[in-house]
């Protein structure tokens, strides 16, 4: 296929009656495999390859209803994520992200409802909440691009409430003027320059305009970003710009153009899970380029109740009764995670750390049960939620890990689970109810 | 507030049924011995009270047996073969709950191998309760008619614990807690026998539930009814005892010790109780310099023998004392 991938017309299916004349010469010159022929027969033009013909995959059942197909598609969609490769990849867990919002005039366009600006702001808030849920040790700063300047909207903070507060005031963020990519990226870079090496530095730009007015050469900024390993991801709301594509490609980030509201959200939320660590992509295989790792000493504090005797806290010298006790020097601090002001020990509450453990020890994917013949006795209901299994198979075909019986079996404890519990266990609980692991 | 309080509530009770712990609990040498028989009769009265509070209230009971967890009762399921015979002296729904729960407990206890006793499958029971809550709160085509209405019950979980912390189940328990947070499920814990458990304290704290250590075990039913019967929306206006102090310690990955100062891998956040050259989880090698620095900074050489969990109680007062005369913030 690669030989004439640049040509517009790839017709060499000489068996196709519609393709007479045009494809004859080519087909005789280059004998091709049957697979390529079949593919060529279905698509007249190469650009069609990127379109999935969703109507071809849907099949009516004997009564002419689509219900079965629709349910099948839904179940498949839910399970698709579970079938992702389970190979070991290294992800960054301590993340630092600067969210750059376009606050230029072009954000007032109404192609996204109600406006690009309102939608971006709403999704940004949802993004921040979800991001902190999955990256509890991370920090987010917010920068706005307005009137040709980079504007610091929110300081780098590990507290979701602080970040959300900076995004909550719509009147303060009212769009005006032209955006400047360079100014904003430089400001974001300045925010992150002091960070330790083992944490990731990322910039996420939500960009609505098609122009940027920069004071200098933006390619120099790009070079510096590549050098300091800042990953830039861009979501464009209007169209693709060469410089945006280049920024994200060269720094290892993602680039996407939102087609509609739903797609915008999908693009944004794809950036929530921790990214694969950059160094492993760059020099894949070579052991020398291992990213710097370190052992950190951390303390797990005891939380004091609201009713304890008031005392002064080490961080603000405020008189208060609640707080956390540093396990090493017994100083009282107001909030965790933080560094102890007295002894410098990093204090985190263990639930913060534990939130990311499901990335480390994922639940083994359940196997779809194809038939009940090989098992001597099978449970009549889901092992987790006691929902009864359907008695008869819904459709005869077993495809892509969908069980016709609606049963999914844990490879360790051999208990059967229903579709909902399968998805729930792998997506939310991260712990198998049968084996407790 | 009233609309909120009017919502029906779903209660999932997880009963820890470890034979050894219940045997120890019934010993006459305890200040207030509590046998499993009297425990069961009190808990059944509590379950009946929950059903009686509101007609739409639903109930699920899960048992954590050694090495296995079982659904003992659920409002939507029939788990016994034949319904109990009607009795003029008892209210049928109560009778249904009582007979189902007791029958199933005795059936499970009969199958327990008297030899080796594996630890109680509390995690399994907790995840099952969450899966069941997920099932009844998700409007789905395949669920039974009972949830046809839009009136989704307000879910919560009550754990009646007698076993000590099982540090190998730290990660699964934390995962279950986070999913409970996501589902907005309150987890209440009543510690009936044995030392305080750090993990369940954190569970109650993180989900806004209450953790109660039973001091007068002869008054179990009173504790249950006064503090765990009202749903969380009502509890805001009641003075339900909350736990006063939460221990945020974690179990290390290497020896399953519970530590207050740990060494954490920067790549995967695995916790170790002493500096290690290679992370056992992600196989990252740590620089020698950092190791030497940490070894010298280590306050005391890490204990070679795992610190037993029972010492946890002794460790707590130490921190309290330090607070009382601790104003180290003056600078």
UniProtKB/TrEMBL annotation, chain A:
Keywords: DNA damage, DNA repair, Metal-binding, Nucleus, Transcription, Transcription regulation, Zinc, Zinc-finger. Pfam families: C1_4, Ssl1. Residues 1-41 are annotated as: Disordered. The keyword Repeat does not apply. A zinc finger (C4-type) spans 326-343. Gene3D superfamilies: von Willebrand factor, type A domain (3.40.50.410), Zinc/RING finger domain, C3HC4 (zinc finger) (3.30.40.10). SMART domains: C1_4, VWA. Residues 96-247 form the VWFA domain. GO terms for molecular function: zinc ion binding. It is found in: Nucleus. Transmembrane segments: none annotated. InterPro entries: C1-like_sf, Ssl1-like, TFIIH_C1-like_dom, TFIIH_SSL1/p44, VWF_A, vWFA_dom_sf, Znf_C2H2_type, Znf_RING/FYVE/PHD. Its main location: nucleus. GO terms for biological process: DNA-templated transcription; nucleotide-excision repair; regulation of transcription by RNA polymerase II. One of its GO terms (cellular component) is transcription factor TFIIH core complex. Belongs to the GTF2H2 family. Component of the general transcription and DNA repair factor IIH (TFIIH) core complex, which is involved in general and transcription-coupled nucleotide excision repair (NER) of damaged DNA and, when complexed to TFIIK, in RNA transcription by RNA polymerase II. This is General transcription and DNA repair factor IIH.
Automatic annotation (TrEMBL), chain B:
It is found in: Nucleus. It comes from the Eukaryota. Its main location: nucleus. Gene3D superfamilies: von Willebrand factor, type A domain. Pfam families: Tfb4. Keywords: DNA damage, DNA repair, Metal-binding, Nucleus, Transcription, Transcription regulation, Zinc, Zinc-finger. One of its GO terms (molecular function) is zinc ion binding. GO terms for cellular component: transcription factor TFIIH core complex; transcription factor TFIIH holo complex. Signal peptide: none annotated. This is General transcription and DNA repair factor IIH subunit TFB4. It comes from Pisolithus tinctorius Marx 270. The lineage of its organism: Eukaryota, Fungi, Dikarya, Basidiomycota, Agaricomycotina.
